[in-house]
Amino acid sequence: MKAALTFNTLRRRLAQTLSRFGQDRGGVAAVEFAFIAPIMILLFVGTIELSAGISTDRKLSRVSSAIGDLVTQSQKLSASDVQNIMDISSKIMFPYSEDVDITITGIEIASGAAKSQWRCNITTGCAKLNGTNYDVPTKIKKDGSFLVSAVVSTTYTPSFGWAHFSKDKGIYFSRTPIDMRDEIFLRPRVGSTVELQ
């Protein structure tokens, strides 16, 4: 009889303990946080990467616009003038990549054909060309006109990486770089051409 009483006592105490455990809500927040925290961290990192990528692309557009605008404000430029203009790219791109490739081309349009007259690159310098064909959008291709093309490109490498999913690896991060490029065409502001001396 003593054994039955002890068994009943144990069963009652176990039932009370389980009842109290079922009513206790103290650990629910920790469990919910454990489920949600990885998702929130992934969203946070993704937002940082996305905003940095968009900001880099906007700064790239700003560089091409500023450089093209400065070149078209003169009728005659020397190679050192153009190099000084291209050197502003590092100031505009700050704090992002300063490794920017810039090419400025003077284009003359005659008889429906766009021919490059000169080209300056930030690393290779300036050269006069003998009318090499240049691809210009038909909407701005007007006979007897002159255009300046400013092409700016860079490779954006994410800080944390991009989240990918595959059946084999699950969710993983990759730091695959993205090539960014911007080109702008502008007409000379002073005179009808921009000449490279």
Short description, anyone?
40% of the residues lie in helices and 32% in strands. The chain is of the alpha+beta class.
**Shape summary:** rod-shaped
Helix % is: 40-55%
Strand content: 25-35%
Q: Please tell me how large the radius of gyration is.
A: 32 Å
Lateral strand order in the biggest sheet: 4-3-2-5-8
In the predicted model, the low-confidence regions spanning at least 5 consecutive residues are none
User: Helical region count?
Assistant: 4
Number of strands: 9
How many structural units, i.e. domains? 1
Largest sheet descriptor:
5 strands, antiparallel
Mean pLDDT comes to 87
- Could you state the order of secondary-structure elements as H and E? HHEHHEEEEEEEE
Write up this protein:
- The structure is a single chain.
- This protein has 197 residues and is α+β, with helices and mostly antiparallel strands.
- It has one domain (2-196).
- The mean pLDDT is 87.
- The chain starts with a helix and ends with a strand.
- Strands 4-3-2-5-8 form a five-stranded antiparallel β-sheet. The protein has a two-stranded parallel sheet with strand order 1-9. Strands 6-7 form a two-stranded antiparallel ribbon.
- It has helices at 2-23, 28-71, 79-86, 89-93, and strands at 76-77, 101-110, 113-121, 125-133, 145-156, 162-166, 170-174, 178-186, 195-196.
- The longest helix is centred in the first third of the chain and has 44 residues, at 28-71.
